Amino acid sequence: MKVFISTSFDNKYTKNSKKKIYATDFDYYKNHFSKNKIIKNDWENPQILQKDFIKLNKVIKKLENIFSIQLSKLHKNTEASVFKKIINVWLIHYVHSYYFKWKIINKLLKQEKKILFTEFDIDTSKVNTIDTKEYLLNLRSSDYHNYIGYFKILKHLKNNGNKNIFFFKKKSKIVFKNKENLLSINKFLFLFLASIDKIFLNFKKIFFLESQNKFFFLRINRIFNQVPFKSNNLFNWNKFKKFEINDKPNIKTYLQKNIDFKNVRIDEFEKFLIKNFNEEIPTCYTSNFENLKNYIDKIDIKPKIILTFFGHVYNELFKLWIMSKKRKKNLYIIEHGGHHQKIRTIGDYEFEFGKKFVSWVKYDNINTVSLPAINYFKKNHKIEKDKNFLIYVPIQKHKYISRINHGPQSNFQNYSLNDIEIFKKSLSKEIFKNFLFATKQEIDINQKIYLNKLIYKKNILKPLQFRNLLSSCKLVICSYPQTAFVDSLMQKPTILVYRKNLWPNRNDFKNVYNLMKKNKIIFEDAKKASIHVNKIWKDPLTWWMNTEVKSARELFLKKFNLINDEEKVIRNWTTFLRSEINIKNL
Asked: How many domains does the chain have?
């Protein structure tokens, strides 16, 4: 009988390695598993990934109707339409992550006659998350959280008659972090500063939730005769939850047992998700919801235009305020990155949450408008010779699957780390000595151990150092075609080394990608890219400023509405904002 290993958590308590079969290659950089010990991951196939994404969008639509109605019954003063929007991002993570686990287990059960799973003495109902962001972070990296997910599915299948699943009970001490004790004076200060924010925001026609680019923020405020006041407290969800959110477990039954499914077809996976909903839903939507509602009910500011880059995704206060105060008609969501792939992880959510989605690239959607990206306003685009180092930007591959997205779906598929061995062999010693590794977030400890064998420890940069060093580097190698690639193209000689099949682009980008590949800006092979880097290293600018190379990259950037003309950027934005304000004044 095979012993099913779901995460590093249950792996450390199971000694018989010969009988182990793994859910994923989560410990790949710690122990190089042979592939026959790992259950086949269907999402490594981009076609299956795309197909499942479309399928799960339908599941999400179905469940958001069911869950929002039940939450509205629980919180009688809040309409179901409000919950439908504010739980959407959490629901995407919930459905995607559990469907991945569901597929893995069902594949295993077809493959093996009987399986054994280690069961620890755990009360799963007491494992709660506060909000969507915490839920996502747990899905990405928590051994314990992911173990419980697999355990719940196995229990569900066992209770529904599957006789091939067996449990081996074991005791384990689980230590939970206690909520930080905060002084009441800090809470008072937060509420006081929030009230000051409210006073200033009462006089604003245009309200930026985040300033993103301080020069653009100052200029727009000056044009519209506003005090350039940035609110740091009123909608600060991270501060609010420290003072106002309690560690209350989801002990109530939020879904009524007598839900009518007569008009809704529910399959076995969806039944599991509905049953499991009570324990998984973050407490900010259940036992702590009234704290949020009481707070936002007192926020009565009425700007004509509300602009946000990120608030509609993980800021639970802001989302609830927009929806419950019916501010959707005033909200404009600004795209914050260079996404141009076929799959948008959160689907049409960004197009529907506010009045308009202000995009970089053009979309065939009535709720979108393309305006110049403001991220690069007042940035220095002059290309000069700089320091003698190369920045490598890898994909941030997390330990566990949290949602459907483009890129590697396993560590075996994570070419961005695996390519470093090729760069080490193929780049000249002088270049590799100056090879800096830059990520957005802290990397997994096992990945770090693996990297330390390949790169000088001092060359592994701390998270978020990339943008600070970009202006002074000699060359950038990006491993994925999104925001970091666009950032780099705007400022420095840059090449992309990626796997085309893992990043299927929109059809309107096909020609420009072929053109950039022809001009050696894009590679699908790390060895060929290394040969090119060795050739141009002494003076990358000669290659970069070549007429054909320059034309190819400018054509690519043009698709993102990136304008290197500050006055034109301001003119386009002020015209748009004034027209929207005038419409609201009618």
From this structure: 3
Both 77 and 44 in a single domain?
A: yes
Domain boundary (135, 170, 205) is at: 170
Q: 377: Cβ–Cβ under 8 A, 6 or more apart, which residues?
A: 213, 215, 216, 219, 566, 569
**Residue 568 lies inside a defined structural domain of this protein:** no
Q: How far is CA 473 from the centre of its chain?
A: 27
Question: Is the four-CA dihedral 81, 83, 88, 92 of positive or negative sign?
Answer: negative
Residue 299: pLDDT band by 50, 70, 90 thresholds?
very high
Neighbours of 461 (CB within 10 A): 16
Other CB atoms within 10 Å distance of the CB of residue 246:
12
Tell me the per-residue pLDDT of 147-198, one tens digit each, with 9 for 90 and over: 999 999 999 999 999 999 999 988 776 655 555 555 666 888 999 999 999 9
Residues 6+ apart with CB under 8 A from 194: 233, 234, 236
In terms of phi and psi (left: phi > 0; alpha: psi -120 to 50; beta: otherwise), the region of 127 is beta
Residue 28 has pLDDT above 90, yes or no: no
Among the candidates 124, 144, 170, a domain finishes at 170
The Cα–Cα gap between 496 and 525 comes to 10
Same domain? 345 vs 446: no
Q: Rounded distance, CA 158 to CA 167, Å?
A: 10
Q: Are residues 152 and 219 in the same domain?
A: no
Tell me the residue range of the domain where 421 lies.
390-545
Tokens of 148: 């419980």
Phi, psi of 99 (to 5 degrees): -65, -40
Which pLDDT band holds residue 442 (cuts at 50, 70, 90)? confident
Residues 125 and 60 in one domain: yes
* Same domain flag for 18 and 60: yes
Same domain, 130 and 33: yes
Q: What's the residue count for the chain? A: 586
- Per-residue pLDDT of 32-80, as tens digits, reads 666 678 999 999 999 999 999 999 999 999 999 999 999 999 998 899 9
**6 with 119: CB under 8 angstroms?**
no
What pLDDT, on the 0 to 100 scale, is given for residue 174? 65
Same domain, 357 and 500: no
